[in-house]
Amino acid sequence: MIKWKKEYELGINQIDEQHKKLFEIAGRAYAVLKDEFRIDKYDDIANILEELKNYTIYHFETEENLMKEIGYKKFLSHKVSHDDFIEKINNIDLEAVDDAQDQYLLEVLDFIIDWIDKHILGADKLITQTRD
């Protein structure tokens, strides 16, 4: 499971706190996955996915406003990656989740963790370089 590390910090307190919240949501999803005593995890999974979608929309809006504010030159490509993430979350088939809960949750977690890791260390770090 991915954990927050100092290397993820951008030095923009509001963005760093929002990123930590995304890690917390992923951590709860992982806890649901590893809970061997719960047979039906559907409601937890659906709630986590809904929270993830709502929170990322809020976070991306904050980040995009900051990029506009500082005149970030790669704003459009960065926004496209945000839009792609939201689209992926919106296209999750909850029926498929219900049929194979652990497997689907693992796939969703892999996607989220990979995206968070690469996006923060890659695209988001470029914002701070523009800002300095």
TrEMBL record:
The keyword Metal-binding applies. Residues 11-126 form the Hemerythrin-like domain. One of its GO terms (molecular function) is metal ion binding. This is Hemerythrin domain protein. SUPFAM superfamilies: Hemerythrin-like. CDD domains: Hemerythrin. Keywords: Iron, Metal-binding. InterPro entries: Haemerythrin_Fe_BS, Hemerythrin, Hemerythrin-like, Hemerythrin-like_sf, Hemerythrin_metal-bd. It comes from Candidatus Syntrophocurvum alkaliphilum. Belongs to the hemerythrin family.
